[in-house]
Amino acid sequence: MMSFAFDNSFARELPSFYVKWAPDRVPGPRLRYLNHALAEELRLDIGRQDAATLADMLSGNRLPEGAEPIAQAYAGHQFGRFSPQLGDGRALLVGELIDCHDKRRDIAFKGSGPTPFARNGDGKAALGPMLREVLISEALHALGIPTTRALAVVDTGEAVRREKLLPGANLTRVAASHIRVGTFEYYAARGDHARVRRLADYTIARHDPGLIGKKGRYLDFLGAVIDRQAALVAQWMGVGFIHGVMNTDNMSIPGETIDYGPCAFMEAYDPKTVFSSIDQHGRYAYQNQPGIAQWNLARLAESLLPLLADDNEDESVALATEAIASFDGRYQRYWLDVMRTKLGFHDQVPDGGDEDRALIAEWLALLQRNSVDFTLAWRHLADAAEGNPLPIRDLFADHLALDAWLANWQVRCATEDGCTNSDESGITASTRASRMRRSNPWLIPRNHCVEDALSAASDDNDFGPFEQLLNALKNPYEAHAEFVRFSKPAPASFTESYCTFCGT
Ligand code: AMP
Ligand code: MG
Question: Which of 60, 180, 301, 335 has its CA 20 to 30 A from that of 487?
Fold first, then answer.
């Protein structure tokens, strides 16, 4: 039997924060996806295993030695409303191990059967949504954005009932940890300050070990979580990623993108874009993501209040308020950094960034007015940097406005060329263009391509399109002739009616 070098710190150090629970047995497990590169990173000697053994193990039918499956408790604000008890209803933390970078990673199942937290759910997952998580999480990873990863998907051989019967699946997810804002809320809502403190101590040791034993560490921990979220959301905004269900139970303390349900990438730039079928008021629309992140972090701050200033509630509230207010400045800095890099600027931010901010605002307004594809616009800006404005002009109806903006942008580029900090006298157009291509992806998982790949796999048992798309998404910053079909926006009619669901 294959061995995983499990070291299950959560199960060991936080008894009473979870329920021990075994995955359901499944009738006919078949391995449909295995992430070999990630397996290697996790030091799993998967190469020597036959497919049947792997399918057995990754379906939960035969757990590797050392696994201690548990269902973690958590609460959460869903669409602004508090649910005191959510928890792993169809997921299990199987164990933790230390990867080849000496980082502790959670290995978890999703779709492994109902747990005591399942409420009325069946505890199962359908194949399509699990393959969707693979495509989009691996795409984000390749884009350089922190995310949970997908190690494997097993078709369970069991049908699950949704609107219709669908093939069932179990996804193996890898995360820095599964500790969420909602994990803290669970204990805080019960007034269990001792457990909030134990959870915070454990989490600090795991994710912010530099704070261990420090005075004021809980406030610094809050600051660290705020900072990671600000950085994460800024990166989402840079690639047009819309998470879709930013409930507090779907916000990870280590700052990874987690929970791939109704997420999708924006096509034509419109800050109000929202795809999720249940997000009727656009709470989680593209433009609202930073504000929602801050709102969620305020829920974390509330949960941590008893730890912030010993027995002094007013002081705790003041400290928490100040920390939450710091999100704005942090986010703005990260966002400006992301956007400036996309524009091809690498110099020190001039005049507090006001001029660059104005240039970005004008650019985004131009994209919106012309309904331009967000990904292609940035990508073709790199061509313009190199003296070829034709591809970008093709995207815009209003050439006059585009040309005026491009002229301003080029003036700004020239100021950077004239005063580089390096010994060189300036950067060349092709250097700028190739730098821009490293931060403006050629490929994102386009919604129509994702849907085509999933329906081929789920409805027709044809995994070819899924594998091709996944393969293409591994190098999103390089243009490849063979993947051109994945790089084109969907027809507007597709995007207008495109609707996503909470991946069940
Ligand atoms: P999510 O929308 O995936 O963030 O899930 C929210 C909550 O619903 C979590 O507590 C999940 O464990 C639970 N949940 C979602 N789908 C199911 C299901 N099919 N069976 C049991 N629990 C579920
Ligand atoms: Mg969730």
Answer: 335
